[in-house]
Amino acid sequence: MPAGTWTLRPADADDRQAIRRLWAESFGPPDGEADRWLDLTIGDAPARCWVATAPAADVVGFLFAAEVDRRFLQSYLRDHPIVDSLPTRIALIHMLGVTSEWQSAGVATALVRQSLKWASERVSVMLAALWRRDDHVDSSGLSPKLGFTHVSTVEGFYHDRIYCPDCGTSCSCPAAIHVKSLTDEQPS
After folding, report:
1. How many CB atoms lie under 10 A from the CB of residue 87?
2. Is residue 106 part of a domain?
3. Which stretches in the chain have pLDDT values below 70?
4. What is the C-alpha to C-alpha distance for residues 161 and 166, in angstroms, rounded to an integer?
5. Domain count of the fold of the chain
6. What residues contact 19, with CB distance under 8 A and at least 6 apart?
7. What's the order of all strands across the beta sheet hosting 149-154?
8. Which CDD domains match (predicted)?
């Protein structure tokens, strides 16, 4: 872990290139997806992106979250039965990435906590679909620590990604679906 500290702030238009780079390093080429989510979060949609920046103002982590309705969630989770058990509007953590140098430094924890604070002011449940990849640092340990419950695993969840850092070509990795009730969440 590098020396120094990092700070959190909302992403802005100047962060696009850094987020695209980190997205590609973590998950493969964003193929326009990062820009679509940035457009949502920088505008006035019920979506946000936060970045963690190092002392030199370098982006070392990011998280996209959005308030979504059932129709969006049904499409996002490909009509998974879990959707029927959730409220009609929830918060969704769409993507979380941290540079390898800053992993295990609390960056991901702080980003998720920030998204929980934001979401708790809007909805009663937050959902995260976590990319399950062998031999990689992922958020599977972070989710239970922050009160998320694993409810399902969806095989081939990322099949529409044209490149996967693990699979080499189109992705066959599963996603672990985690949910958290926000009714007891206390903003900090």
Report:
1. 11
2. yes
3. 1-4, 29-31, 42-45, 132-140, 159, 161-163, 165, 185-188
4. 12
5. 1
6. 11, 34, 38, 49, 51, 59, 62
7. 7-10, 47-53, 59-69, 89-98, 125-131, 175-181, 149-154
8. NAT_SF (cd04301)
What pLDDT score was predicted for residue 47? 87
Q: What is the CATH number of the domain that holds 155?
A: 3.40.630.30
Does a structural domain hold residue 2?
Answer: no
Please indicate, yes or no, if residue 188 is contained in any of the structural domains.
no
Coarse DSSP helix, strand, coil percentages of the chain, rounded to the nearest 5 percent:
30, 30, 40
Residue 116 lies in a domain: yes
Instruction: Check if the beta carbon of residue 11 is closer than 8 Å to that of residue 19.
Output: yes
Q: Measured on CA atoms in the order 56, 6, 111, 119, is the torsion positive or negative?
A: negative
Domain that holds residue 117: 7-181
Q: Cβ of 143: how many Cβ atoms within 10 Å?
A: 20
